[in-house]
Design a protein that fits this description.
The complex is a heterodimer.
Chain A: H1 3-20, E1 25-26, H2 29-35, H3 42-46, E2 57-59, H4 64-76, E3 81-84, E4 101-104, E5 111-115, E6 120-124, H5 129-137, E7 141-143, H6 155-160, H7 169-172, H8 175-178, E8 179-185, E9 191-195, H9 204-207, E10 216-226, E11 230-238, H10 241-253, E12 261-266, H11 267-271, E13 282-290, H12 292-308, E14 312-313, H13 316-324, E15 339-348, H14 352-363, E16 369-376, E17 381-390, H15 395-414, E18 418-419, H16 427-433, H17 435-448, H18 466-482
Parallel strand pairs in A: 2-4, 3-4
Antiparallel strand pairs in A: 1-2, 5-6, 6-10, 7-10, 8-9, 8-10, 11-13, 11-14, 12-13, 12-16, 15-17, 15-18, 16-17
Chain B: H1 59-64, H2 71-82, H3 94-98, H4 105-109, H5 116-129, H6 135-147, H7 168-186, E1 199-202, H8 205-209, H9 212-225, E2 229-231, H10 240-245, H11 248-264, E3 269-272, H12 275-288, E4 296-299, H13 300-310, E5 313-317, E6 326-330, H14 344-351, E7 353-354, E8 356-361, H15 377-380, H16 382-394, E9 399-400, H17 407-410, E10 413-414, E11 418-421, H18 424-437, E12 443-445, H19 446-451, E13 453-457
Parallel strand pairs in B: 1-2, 1-3, 3-4, 5-7, 6-8, 6-11, 11-12
Antiparallel strand pairs in B: 5-13, 8-9, 9-10
The chains are: A alpha+beta, B alpha/beta.
Bound molecules: flavin-adenine dinucleotide and iron/sulfur cluster (2 copies).
């Protein structure tokens, strides 16, 4: 760095410290290393040649005013910004792509107001779901929906990703449905409150799924629900994916009580993490959560439907443990490998079997340890997550698995479906297949962030080129097969 | 009929009337596959997937909000160091290494089953070998090397706490100890002739040199119960503070010395009032001897209720009555609880005291929050340690009178009148915070409660 640059660096570092206090601005390389990654490991290597995945500062504002002042200062110095919550959304969504400042929102973790009458909660954006769930519980309330990563993820991360699958979405709708308003700190530091139907340039619908490209969310207001009095757990094993999918759809669309949580997994998914597992190849699991008379009916309906489809009832203790550990189930696969690789697809419920038919032959020979887990989402869709248990050190296997997952992404788009989450890594899929969305978001972004400084390379801009990816995966798969 | 090949086991601690309350519970480990782990577990960080589940339970992170202060962040640094993607700078890396209480709460919730305490302890050994040792810890190390205690106190003064009428019961037990060693040395008594009922009390440096009230209380309680016990006259520091800070070589020498000292006197059971010493004997000492120490280890919270049951004793708290009991809540010390799996015995002991009633804090047993003192944090990061302790004290306001499966909905909230622990470090750190922020909340060791009890025979009731 030139002397001039060093002086400027020191100047804005000091100014940042003045805004948020010295203990919450850091340029410490270790802290930066720790705070710029997420679960995915590839982007670190992908951007390595330019070292742009590394921030220069981590800044932790405490409230909207500080957030806005930091944003304004970054604009004044033309510093790239990445807003970060818990970093669980994978695909490098909260990793810098142009260096610059990471604004970590987790200090903004307070509940500002709970209105038990109107059943709304207003809180700071960086509150963890766990804390929010507990604060609401004390008032007899509960969020309508949240991700299964609730043990660490934050409210704002869910608001700006799609928030369409997880716990509660089938029964109460997606996070968009639960949203009342957000406070947006725009890339120039100005603050605006966006409500449902507030009619501004950027709407709440644009915010959900925006991956922070329009700026930082500092506060969120949600509609919540009441704690219910009864919970029934349902689980059946099936011989075929057709039977399992049929049962899954019946539960999802039943008119008595929509499941609070619903999943369909293959035996490998259960077996890679549990000692004792259901005996059949496919396992459908549902949680009903409502008043006793409603859940009793849902239970009876489930039993009747499962009987018709030849389902085998799973032991209650297994179902109970699964509920208690619902946040952990995906991650438990990491007990057996260093790097569980995965991709999430967003597939219409009626195409589950078709997706599986395409997928099954690709893993038939079990060249790598694989597993499948489907989670119910809103609007007749489900999130299918495919896993490969691997190790980055075994690069042939690693990229071989990636190639398989990529093929399924292509299949999904060709069949009018898509992938669940964008992040940085998956942006090129949007560019290929979601042109309409990209153009709409680009237009909005041009007006709020013409310099493309904030959360760059999400949705509207990509570094990856399909031909490169294709080439990489063809080579990888050939070598993997050969090996 | 086709059946699932499943067992008929029952699950525990389930909340089935609401959204999952993860964070209050660790995962159901019983039915989870054992994690793929390296032999010495020190490479387990490679499996860390940066899920962040251990962030919320980490009290340090909750105070500093620094990503390097929780287990996943520290694991990320370890991975990057391992791949040589970042340099090891002995000066600036110290916070990453040492701002951790080694409390083990993160290991409890880790879905991939990383033994974080093992990993981080090994990180400290590597750091020390790489020259990354804070000045304060160097002083502690030097003191232990020179004086066999971390307080720069002359070793000859180790038992001054009981001398000159300070604690007659302790002094007599010390004399018995001196007598035993003399007889063994002279051949008057052979090690295998020593009574199996005789227990040896290992005082530990902190109670010997700083918190005499605990060594005295222990001796008074043991004496009142009629236990046959000695004080080990020539004990040296157990090495805990060195094991915790990564100076294993010096600690190993002390360990060998203490093991030999106890073995040669034919002692069959050693008891501890210090949770740190107890944990070091139960973990490092046991590991070193391949679980063949040759004598039994008990913390006083295990020994006292066992002895009381065997001898038909109970305790009557003199300052309150059965009708108007003192409402206490019990803070599980990490060294006793997560390190040694001692959860129920201290609660058993409390239940034996007439005039005391126990309410539980929301975070208890395996999910108990650390007091803030562990792993050298008290010594190196005093402000953070006090903030962590203060947040633990806050938890005493909302305790639960009864715990059952659906406890969060059905339990009755109460405010504890006193916070009780069974570890001198917890007591000190929590008392320090209480004196600053909650002067009305007494913090005590369980032994101080017992000291204020009459020991009664059940048939006297
Ligand atoms: C085990 C596991 C289970 C999961 N389960 C689900 C699930 O059920 N459903 C689901 O949808 N997802 C799930 N996810 C993905 C992820 O956890 C969620 O998307 C979660 O909501 C992300 O929250 P976060 O706090 O980690 O956000 P981050 O990952 O930190 O951020 C996500 C994106 O939001 C941006 N962002 C964060 N905060 C702000 C803000 N205040 N202002 C502007 N932009 C911001 C970031 O830049 C990033 O682009 C799961 C992940 C894991 C690891
Ligand atoms: S819970 Fe385990 S895997 Fe997750 S971040 Fe912490 S140490 Fe890593
Ligand atoms: S051992 Fe305790 S203090 Fe250290 S990282 Fe884990 S939870 Fe935090």
């Amino acid at each position: 760095m030139s002397q001039k640059k060093i002086t400027e660096f020191e100047k804005y570092t000091n100014e940042l410290k003045e805004i948020v206090s010295p203990s919450h601005v850091t340029t410490d390389p270790y802290e930066i290393e720790a705070a710029t990654g997420d679960l995915s490991i590839l982007p670190k290597y992908h951007y390595k040649f330019k070292e742009e995945h590394i921030a220069t500062h981590i800044v932790r504002p405490n409230n909207t005013d500080q957030f806005s002042a930091v944003m304004k200062l970054c604009k004044d110095y033309m510093l790239p910004v990445t807003v970060r919550a818990a970093g669980t959304s994978c695909y490098s969504a909260s990793t810098p792509t142009k260096g610059g400042v990471v604004i970590d929102v987790r200090r903004m973790n307070k509940v500002l107001e709970i209105d038990s009458e109107k059943m709304t909660v207003k809180c700071q954006a960086g509150i963890s779901w766990l804390k929010l769930i507990q604060a609401l519980r004390a008032k007899g309330l509960a969020p309508k929906c949240y991700p299964t990563s609730y043990k660490s993820s934050c409210l704002s991360g869910f608001v700006v990703t799609s928030g369409a699958a997880g716990i509660g979405q089938i029964k109460f709708g997606s996070i968009y449905d639960a949203l009342n308003a957000v406070t947006l700190v725009k890339p120039d530091g100005s603050v605006s409150r966006i409500q449902k139907n507030s009619g501004g340039e950027i709407t709440l619908a644009d915010i959900t799924g925006s991956f922070g490209i329009f700026g930082g969310i500092s506060e969120v207001e949600l509609n919540v629900t009441t704690l219910k009095t009864s919970m029934e757990l349902v689980g059946y094993g099936f011989h075929t994916m057709e039977q399992a999918s049929e049962f899954y759809r019946l539960l999802k669309s039943n008119s008595i009580d929509k499941p609070f949580y619903l999943s369909l997994s293959d035996k490998k998914f259960e077996g890679f993490s549990h000692v004792t597992i259901p005996s059949r190849p496919f396992f459908v699991y549902a949680v009903f959560y409502d008043d006793p008379e409603v859940t009793a009916k849902a239970l009876a309906f489930s039993k009747e439907s499962a009987d018709k489809l030849g389902g085998l009832e799973i032991d209650k203790w297994y179902l109970e443990e699964k509920w208690r550990d619902v946040a952990d189930v995906e991650l438990n696969l990491g007990r057996l490998c260093n790097n569980p690789i995965f991709q999430e697809y967003w597939i219409s419920d009626e195409k589950l079997e078709a997706f599986y038919e395409e997928y099954a032959p690709k893993v038939k020979d079990d060249k790598y340890r694989n597993a499948m887990y489907i989670m119910g989402g809103s609007n007749g869709k489900s999130r299918i997550k495919l896993f490969g248990l691997s190790d980055i050190e075994k690069s042939l296997e690693f990229f071989g698995i990636k190639a398989n997952l990529h093929k399924m992404a292509q299949w999904s788009y060709k069949n009018g479906e898509g992938i669940y989450s964008c992040g940085v890594v998956n942006t090129f899929y949007y560019h290929l297949f979601n042109q309409e969305k990209v153009q709409h978001m680009q237009k909005l972004n041009n007006s709020v962030d013409p310099d493309d400084r904030v959360n760059s390379y999400r949705i509207i801009k990509t570094k990856m080129r399909l031909w490169r990816i294709k080439l990489l995966f063809i080579v990888a798969q050939t070598l993997f097969r050969w090996a | 009929m086709e059946e699932n090949k499943m067992s008929d086991k029952k699950s525990k601690d389930l909340i089935t009337t609401g959204p999952p309350s993860g964070g209050l519970f660790s995962p159901q480990q019983e039915n989870l596959i054992k994690p793929l782990t390296t032999e010495d577990m020190t490479q387990d960080y490679l499996r860390c997937i940066q899920c962040g589940y251990c962030r919320d339970v980490c009290r340090v992170f909750n105070v500093t909000f620094r990503e390097t202060d929780y287990a996943g962040g520290r694991n990320r640094i370890l991975k990057s160091l391992n791949k040589k993607e970042i340099p090891f700078d002995p000066e600036t890396i110290q916070d990453v290494v040492y701002r951790c209480m080694l409390c083990g709460n993160c290991a409890e919730v880790c879905p991939v089953g990383i033994d974080t305490v093992h990993v981080f302890r090994n990180f400290r050994v590597r750091a020390v070998n790489g020259g990354a040792m804070p000045e304060k810890l160097k002083k502690v190390r030097d003191s232990v090397v020179e004086f066999a205690n971390p307080f720069m106190e002359e070793g000859t003064k180790r038992h001054d706490w009981c001398k000159g009428n300070a604690c007659d019961e302790g002094y007599v037990a010390w004399e018995r100890g001196v007598g035993l060693y003399r007889k063994i040395k002279s051949g008057e008594l052979k090690p295998d002739e020593v009574s199996p009922n005789l227990v040896a009390y290992f005082i530990g440096c902190t109670s010997a040199f700083r918190n005499n009230e605990l060594s005295s209380a222990t001796c008074r309680v043991l004496d009142a119960m009629g236990a046959d016990f000695i004080v080990i006259p020539e004990e040296k520091c157990c090495g805990s503070v060195l094991f915790r800070t990564g100076v294993d070589d010096v600690a190993t020498e002390l360990m060998k010395y203490n093991i030999d000292l106890i073995r040669k006197a034919g002692i069959k059971e050693v008891i501890f009032s210090c949770a740190g010493c107890f944990s070091t004997f139960s973990n490092e000492y046991q590991e070193y001897t391949h679980h063949n120490l040759g004598f039994k280890l008990s913390h006083v919270t295990q020994f006292i209720p066992r002895f009381a049951k065997e001898h038909g004793l109970y305790f009557k708290y003199k300052l309150r009555s059965k009708e108007d009991p003192l409402k206490i809540t019990y803070h599980d010390p990490c060294h006793l609880a997560r390190y040694c799996d001692v959860y129920e015995e201290p609660r058993d002991l409390i239940s034996m005291i007439e005039g005391i009633s126990l309410s539980e804090m929301q975070y208890n047993k395996k999910m108990s929050h650390c007091c803030g003192a562990g792993g050298g944090v008290r010594a190196l990061y005093g402000d953070e340690a006090t903030s962590i302790a203060d947040s633990r004290l806050d938890e005493t306001v909302e305790c639960w009178d009864e715990i059952n499966e659906d406890r969060l909905l059905e339990a009755v909230e109460t405010k504890a009148e006193s916070l009780v622990s069974a570890c001198v470090f917890c007591k000190n750190n929590l008392s320090n915070a209480a004196s600053q922020f909650k002067p009305d909340l007494p913090v005590q060791d369980i032994l101080q409660i017992l000291e204020n009890c009459d020991v009664k025979r059940k048939d006297e009731k």
